[in-house]
Amino acid sequence: MCGSKAILLGITCVIRNAVAMTALQVAEGLQASLSSGSSIFLSSNVQYSEQITPRWDVYEPPTYQVAVKPALIEDVKAIVSIHIQYASTNKLPFLATGGGHGYTTTLGSLQNGLVLDMGNFKTMELNSTTNMLTIGGSIKSSDVTPMIQAAGKEFPVGQCTCVGLTGFTLGGGIGPYSSLYGPASDSVYEIEMVSGAGEILTVSKDQNPDLFWGMRGAGFNYGVVTSITYNVYDATNGGNAINADMTFTGAQNGTIWKIMESFVGKQPDQLSISAEINFSATSGIIILVNLLYAGPQEELDPLMQPFLDLQPSNLNISSITWHDIPSSFLYGASVQGCSVTGIEYIPYSVNLYQIDIDNLINAVNFMNTSMTLAPELQTATIALDMYAQGGFQRNTYTSSAFPYRDVVIFAQIDCFALDASATPALAQWGKEMRDILHQGSGKANLEVYVHFAHGDEGNAAWYTEHKLKQLKELKNKYDPNSLFSFYNPVLNTSSSSSIVG
């Protein structure tokens, strides 16, 4: 590894020539500053596509001239330090990526930049005695869940196995077992990172506690995370759950919403409920319902009976392991979604704080009418995830930057453009559907979980007005040059960025 003087010399060389440098010269200048285990690729190089994590979504994407795969945290520090020097001229904006799954449109404001690929940070260590899990910054949930399951432990991962666990956590991180444990960010014990000020930091409740608050819910605004240590938990129900998938017709939607509404304020912590609304060219509206219960089936049966009384056209009830939830949940839909990359996915979302039955019926009617008239819209779906609030309320509203502990349903409008010509219509439809659902949300202002956001909502919608003042103060302290401002950003008080916020 280069000594500190060599790093500074390399940085100085890059900065002094920033105005006139080509992408090749930038790459060469960076290489002189990094350890031998690091790699640099021009986007024109054939190895770029082989070595750099591909983006899952290509709708309004960022573009890059250069990719860097650092090997050590000191390499990350060197790269951030270079960009601190660039900040005044903004010659080469950059983004750190782990799983490559981020899809907000604010990422598209980064053009011709540098991607810092964290693919070399892939360590995993689980201590079953202390119930501590430490992972590197590029680990995905599918990498680590088999090890956790084998140790008789569990942890609130999301529904999609292809998502980078670090990025997932920095925005909160929600999934079926959030009903038990809250967002993944509540389970964070310690973070190792390089801040936007170029400092290597350990962040925990005892070290840099102000930043620890902000990293758990808005963490991608403050630096690059190289590792996270989590608390994990003894497996519930022997590490098994009951998964029930059901299929219903569109005509049954009002009754389905009424049943779901009956669980508001009464939902057991072991239970998560999800519904997915689809449109079939031959059958019209189809509604899939999933009940996932972290306990024995005899406890689930009475909770499930109102749905069974509707006589679903398809029913699949099975006992599964915690690790297998993504491959079983909603007929394995999340695994199917993770099996492809490079798609145009146009996301919209809204938090629902109540179940307004008439509003949801109106949304289904709008979906049925619009998709019947415009077949290009039929690839869009609506996902409604209803997690028990017991897990979220294990910690207080003020305990971290994660703001949404009282949401009844996290509603996602998932628009998939299989043909680029359908993209404008799907984007417009998704926005219209979001507006409809917002009318029944129970809140006057739009609020949305940051990882589900489209990117046009603004930072008050992502983080709430109540938390923005403290988040901006942290931005001024830990990322004063706003280097980390391309993913649904918190903008510091002096920023003149044009990014929505």
TrEMBL record:
Keyword Oxidoreductase: yes
Necessary cofactors: FAD
Record-level Gene Ontology MF annotations: FAD binding; oxidoreductase activity
Span of the signal peptide: 1-20
Pfam family for this entry, one: FAD_binding_4
Domain FAD-binding PCMH-type: 59-235
InterPro entries in the record: FAD-bd_PCMH, FAD-bd_PCMH-like_sf, FAD-bd_PCMH_sub2, FAD-linked_Oxase-like_C, FAD-linked_Oxidoreductase, Oxid_FAD_bind_N
Key words of the record: FAD, Flavoprotein, Oxidoreductase, Signal
Family to which the UniProt record says this protein belongs: Belongs to the oxygen-dependent FAD-linked oxidoreductase family.
Protein name: FAD-binding PCMH-type domain-containing protein
Species in which this protein is naturally found: Botrytis paeoniae
